[in-house]
Amino acid sequence: MRTWSDVAEVQPLASRIITNSIMKNRISHAYLIQGERGTGKEEIATLLAKYLFCENINGTEPCQQCNACKRIASGNHPDVHWIEPDGLSIKKDQIDQLQKEFSYSGLESNRKVYIIKDADTLTANAANRILKFLEEPSKETTAIMLTENGQSIISTIRSRCQIIDLQPLNSQLFERQLIESGISAGSARLFSALTNNFDEAVGLNQDEWFAQARKLMVQLIEMFSTKPADAFLFIHNSWLSHFKERHQLEQGLDLLLLAFKDILYYHMGNEGAMVVFTSDNAKLEKASMVFSQEKLLSILHTILQAKRKLKQNVHPALVMEQLTLQIQR
């Protein structure tokens, strides 16, 4: 999405809110952009930063050709600062460093922009540091916070931001686009359940790490179905060694969530909704014989809890150990 017109095709409300603010010269000092993965959070943040620094504005649109626009697009503008989690969270030291940078004059103007990815991972101390920024806003400073989970942002921060809600994308349309690009129908259905970002889906289709992640997920489901006592060992010997980073473990939990949903759909005779298994998959049939509908609903709830714990910076090994024990019960 290179223009606000592009944004309007996917997120019409967000585009209208921001372009109206631009036309009225009422750009907020802080935005909280919240929406599912792939809904355009980073693209919108980048486009807004380009508008603020563009040397050749055309109405509400940045020119995309000037030196400032090109450097922002490449992530190399000295006065546009991107903050993202260091490991599992955004830490106080990262915000302290940001504050130090902001104590200096801008290298090319007095304007500065900071964009915080996964803002829901701010530690308590880091969130308090950001709050001080927001409580004493500079006219030349714009904060843009991005999150998939806006309710995890503390209320004092939310109240100081203009909140932009992004709508989920049309998964069926996205699935057709993936198939037209050459991705198999089965993979396209899975990718459309995991992301709404075309480039990310194409990357997953070519990623050997993700192919192995799918195999491990199926192996774990099979183990829970046939040898549940061995699942704990499998988690430590195979799962955690593959899903090392926070985003990788989140993806692993997403795969497990989809797989157990498939088993539930199979129970209910709704095979058309399945995204991981096919209705004639032997592993699916075995799993459906082991898990009742009531147990499956409990497991889905447990996986969602595990995802929340991961967001709250609980140690990944502990999250998976607790999840395994709860599924085994």
From TrEMBL:
* Residues spanning the signal sequence: none
EC number(s) on file: 2.7.7.7
**Pfam families in the cross-refs:** DNA_pol3_delta2 (PF13177), DNApol3-delta_C (PF09115)
**Catalytic reactions of this protein:** DNA(n) + a 2'-deoxyribonucleoside 5'-triphosphate = DNA(n+1) + diphosphate
Describe the location of the AAA+ ATPase domain by residue ranges.
27-169
Class in the EC hierarchy, top level: transferase
GO CC entries: DNA polymerase III complex
Keyword annotations from UniProtKB, A to Z: DNA replication, DNA-directed DNA polymerase, Nucleotidyltransferase, Transferase
Matching entries from InterPro entries are given as: AAA+_ATPase, DNA_pol_HolB, DNA_pol_III_delta_C, DNA_Rep/Repair_Clamp_Loader, P-loop_NTPase
UniProt keyword annotation of Transferase present: yes
Listed under GO biological process in this entry are: DNA-templated DNA replication
Task: List the molecular function annotations (GO) for this entry.
Answer: 3'-5' exonuclease activity; DNA binding; DNA-directed DNA polymerase activity
State the name under which the record lists this protein: DNA polymerase III subunit delta'
Q: Which species does the entry assign this protein to?
A: Virgibacillus oceani
Tell me the classification of the organism that encodes this protein.
Bacteria, Bacillati, Bacillota, Bacilli, Bacillales
